[in-house]
Amino acid sequence: MDDCTSGEEDYYYSDRDSLDGLENDESDVQWVPPKGPSSKVITKESLLAAQREDLRRVMELLSLREFHARTLLIHYRWDVEKLFAVLVEKGKPFLFDEAGVTVVEKDDLDSFIFATVSCDICMEDVPGTAVTKMECGHNFCNDCWTEHFIVKINEGQSKRIRCMAHKCNAICDEAVIRNLVRKRHPDLAEKFDRFLLESYIEDNKMVKWCPSTPHCGNAIRVEDDEFCEVECSCGLQFCFSCLADAHSPCSCLMWELWTKKCRDESETVNWITVHTKPCPKCHKPVEKNGGCNLVSCICGQAFCWLCGGATGRDHTWSRINGHSCGRYKEDREKNAERAKRDLYRYMHYHNRYKAHTDSFKLESNLKETIREKVSNLEKKDSRLRDFSWVTNGLYRLFRSRRVLSYSYPFAFYMFGDDLFKDEMTNAEREIKQNLFEDQQQQLEANVEKLSKFVEEPFDQFAEDKVMQIRMQVINLSVITDNLCKKMYDCIENELLGSLQFGIHNIAPYQSKGIEKATELSVCWNPKDENTEKCPTPYSPNGIVTEPGRPSGSGSSYEGGCSSRNKRPRTGSLGSCTIDLNLPADVID
Amino acid sequence: MVDFARVQKELHECNKDIEVSGISIKLKEDNNNSLTHLTGTIPGPLATPYEGGNFNIDIVLPDGYPFEPPRMQFATKVWHPNISSQSGAICLDILKDQWSPALTLKTALLSVQALLSAPEPDDPQDAVVAQQYLRDYQTFAATARYWTETFARSSTLGIEDKVKKLVEMGFPEAQVRSTLESVGGDENMALEKLCSG
After folding, report:
1. Which domain of life is it from (chain A) (predicted)?
2. Judging by beta carbons within 10 Å of its beta carbon (0-12, 13-18, 19+), is residue A565 exposed, middle or buried?
């Protein structure tokens, strides 16, 4: 969102206005789920810096060289905690052995110099200077090593190139590989380096490529929780877990099913099954548009509408000659009814989902008109100088609309038979559905009200009236925010929380909107005093990367990088909402 | 490119101790004597249903040999859980991802031979054979033995081996050779003929 300027104004406004702003900020942090993930954008340039912290932690704890640490981390998929857990449980030798790490003293390697050596691969005698001995102790001639590396890199095995000796599990030293390959194929050596670097993205469940097309070249790293929604610096918002569009409060599975359902023409097919019957001869679907139950297809075949069986053409109004199908067959009726019911159910949810998505799209145009209105008002000489309530209200409207629209596919699956048929009894389901729908309705009503007020041509109004609208907008913003929060509470605790097969995780509600991932600073200094404090293996924060941003406490200000602290707040429109509570509280 | 110097050395080394190992590697004749297409021969291991058979294995060396594994498959039909009874394809890890350039054709053939004596029915190439191996070992062994008799015996014994065998029985070499020739290389018929005078 390109409201940076207004956002910045807000920031300074609240800063200079009162200290209350700061207090409010902190309470804000508290009622947002405490472990708000802080995501980072990793660009091609910062890729190395991004993994350095992990490497450093492993190198320090095990006093290893960098390539050993990398080998270990690649083997354990960059999960430092797991690596340390294995170390504690099974010990160093096991850890190293599993990952193919062999550590020897450098002297030991150098002591090996003969005039000529017989290489077991090419079976030639080669001078000792043209031989390389790996840390596992196996030595072969450089030509053979090079050939081996090239084959493996081309096979896409860069991340785990093993020693050539049979049954030797040791991973080769990346520096040796790089040097030898570069002599013959410089570009292949580059490719090898890139594969190694990108392992941090490819083999790491906390880092994923941004799914933008055309690809922006960035990756996103999250902390603590992979079920979240993020915004890449390219502007794309997506669900980190499934890489589809942001879809909370739908779970990834629900969203996948829903988009598939909407994309498929499966509902058209449903209509056909409800309203038509196939001709018993040509099998085309036939719709009955009136008349008696003897239907004739355009192919000439007559059949009974009741049972679909072929008949003769002789009939009276009450019966077809020689045909009787009056006996009750429960199954068929049930099926037809079910298809019909499913269709109506889907249409109900889809219409509402669509309505909110469409309004959301229309309201996106509002942004421009709102900006105009604000500038009109600013020209007027009034005692109102702060118009952040307008942008805040608009933003809240967008945010709530989103939540609302995705709450329909959620409800479709939550209370339908597709996913949770065996999870609750009908009575339970009804209670839960009522509970949920009450909240949904309340939210909906307030969102519509908010929408109405934001769309008022308030720049034409007298000052008193503008003040009234301001109050309404601020009030409704707070209310819808709280309602969203309550609905998420209900979803997370009452609905999804009580499931036995808890596979449905949703991205938590973010009052401030989808988090914008911040750029990872490239000039990261490993000797930073802040990070020296926390190389402990079991840091509660998981991967500690940016010293300037511990989770939401005042200590963040001593990091000495205030500009970095400020950026995430001022950069996004979401930060405006911090101020949002202030006037509302004052009014109360 | 295939490392031909190494292949030549390998052939030399392997065929040097053919007496001990029983394993031989020859150039495939119908392929312009190219070094990339070879035939290996392994004797069936003792105390297995394959005992007494000689199995030919078709070997194709890929361009990256020895950094890529040689492609091997049985040219002789064989009844074994890890070898396709149809195509002769072999399911053996060292011929796939566990290949190491330090291995040679001879060691690979030795591994194949080891596979004959120690089938791994839990990781089958031929599901039918593997099922039979697990459910009805007797029938499996009988079938394997029958296949060995039928496909791996006469046809695969080199003419020199047959000559040697008959000479060891006490017949003069020149006579053995001419008799074998007259019956088209069939060892049993030759023996009959030699005995009858």
Report:
1. Eukaryota
2. middle
Considering the candidates B2, B27, B60, B91, report the single residue annotated as catalytic. Answer: B91
Name the interface residues of B facing A (CB cutoff 8 Å).
3, 5-6, 9-10, 64, 66-68, 94, 98, 100-103, 107
Residues A247-302: tens digit of each pLDDT: 888 888 889 888 888 877 666 766 776 778 878 777 778 887 766 777 888 887 88
Residue A410 contacts residue A419 (beta carbons within 8 Å): no
Indicate whether A351 pLDDT > 50: yes
Give the containing element (helix H, strand E) for A386: none
Query: CA A191, CA A181: separation in Å to the nearest integer?
Result: 11
Closest CA to B72 of B54, B62, B58: B58
Which ipTM score applies to this complex? 0.74
pLDDT in tens, A419-429: 887 778 888 88
Architecture of domain A332-495: Up-down Bundle (1.20)
For chain A, the domains span 279-327, 332-495
Q: How do beta strands A229-231 and A515-516 pair? A: parallel
Instruction: Please indicate whether, in this complex, the C-beta atoms of B100 and A122 are within 8 angstroms of each other.
Output: no
What is the distance between the alpha carbons of residues A204 and B152, in angstroms, rounded to a whole number?
Answer: 52
B14 is an active site residue: no
Distances (CA, A) of B74 to B40, B80, B90, B91, B112: 9, 11, 7, 11, 10
Query: Which of B98, B101, B107 comes nearest A164 by C-beta?
Result: B101
Report the distance separating Cα A70 and Cα A100, nearest Å.
11
